[in-house]
Amino acid sequence: MKIRQMKNSADKAILKKLYIKTVAAAATLIMVITMTVSVTYAWLILSTSPTVSGAEINLAGGNNILLAPDVTETVDGTTVHYPGAFSDKVGLSYDYLKELAGLSPVSTADGLNWIVNEGGSYSVDNTLGYANSKTYRSAGGYVYLDFWVVSPGSDYTLRVSTGTGSAGRGGGNKNDGSSVVEFPIVTGSKESGFTVSEPDGFGTAASIRLGFLVNDSKVEESSNLQSYQASSAYEKRYGAKLLGNYQEPGEELSQSETYKFTIYEPNGTLHKNEADNGCYFITKPLTDAAGNKKDDISDILTVQTENKWNFNGGAAPLDERFRDYVNGTSDDINAKNVMGAFFQNGLGWYVQPYITRGSFFVNTKNLYNAASEGTVGKDEVSSLKKAGATDDVYITRLTRNTPQRIRMFIWLEGEDADCKNVSKGTTEFIINLEFSGADQ
């Protein structure tokens, strides 16, 4: 993969200016992950009954970057991929997401080799064998999905960002932005009344990761392009070529392909132990079955500070809107399902006004350099520069009018300091994902 690297400080200065004057494209991803967690070995392990349920994935774009779902067909026994209709707003209604079993810890440094843990013994999954499973696997379980991005105006560099909120350099839409939060806690019943409080956390929000795998090889198989050209979503200006070759489940990794992998770590300063909140612990993911670790992933890692609920952030307080929903609904609700039902039927999953998003560390290498024995203290974290996106880490460089398929992963990083000693309980996440596009 040919990716232009910034060679000097002058390049970085130009990039900072471009962030201010370029309009960002936003992509909002909302996924609800229901899990039950218990303690075993060093990694957090889930029970045998969790599910990825109620998946709601909505992407919203701007003028610079458009998004599309991945469409698959079987042609002559081969799976072909091509983009659906490109739009600034698109819903990814992938049916398989609602059938998946829950997440259990894995570790990866490259998005290709996934280290799983069966009874304390490591092994490597590089055929997507532990991905998107419909049955729970205690040794490891992660999720992946594909989507398409295109830049109709010019070449743009794609990053994860917070939007135009308090950390406004990322651009995007007000009240959108990247974040990961656990569901608020609900107790009581409809008859006795529900009580809503902020999540106390089980360490899972702190150990979740999102990864973006990019392969920018031209899709040579003519059936992919022909299928796209024959589809109702086809647009002539995007029909010259498609980029992105990825393995199918069960296939061996191609030795001739080159990939770029970027890791998004939300809630980098959030920890199970409240005394540690505000610090940052460097994670060294596993690289092989021998348990070897990659000491420094700062060149592929973008880190965000803690994301928090702000129950008073919307036009009306969250608990007020919650009470209105409960009092007016005929849904069969209880303490376990009422919050998900409220988010879906009461808010339409538009929860961003009630989330105070963390900021991104501008330079991940500086974050690593500030560490002492793997820990960046609260004072050092406070002094490091933050903004709406990370300067020195990006997902990919988009070529004008050329659709690019991106493979996104969601997993619990087993080597994260918080992915152990996890109390038994049930937790759900809301994941909002926003991309920014700059012309450098």
Architecture overview:
It is globular and about 60 Å long. The strands form ten sheets. The chain has a seven-stranded mixed sheet with strand order 5-4-9-24-14-15-17. Strands 2-1-25 form a three-stranded antiparallel sheet, with no helix packed on it. A three-stranded antiparallel sheet has the order 23-10-27, covered by helices on one side. Residues 1-30, 33-56, 165-174 and 422-426 have low confidence and may be disordered. The chain contains seven helices and 27 strands. The protein is 13% helix and 27% strand. It has helices at 9-21, 204-207, 222-230, 318-328, 338-346, 364-369, 378-383; strands spanning 35-39, 44-46, 58-60, 66-75, 78-83, 89-91, 114-118, 121-125, 143-150, 156-160, 179-182, 185-189, 193-197, 208-214, 260-265, 280-281, 301-303, 308-309, 355-356, 360-361, 375-376, 386-387, 396-398, 404-412, 425-427, 429-432, 435-438.
Question: In a nutshell, what does this entry contain?
Answer:
With 440 residues, the protein is an alpha+beta fold. It is built from seven helices and 27 strands. The chain has helices spanning 9-21, 204-207, 222-230, 318-328, 338-346, 364-369, 378-383, and strands at residues 35-39, 44-46, 58-60, 66-75, 78-83, 89-91, 114-118, 121-125, 143-150, 156-160, 179-182, 185-189, 193-197, 208-214, 260-265, 280-281, 301-303, 308-309, 355-356, 360-361, 375-376, 386-387, 396-398, 404-412, 425-427, 429-432, 435-438.
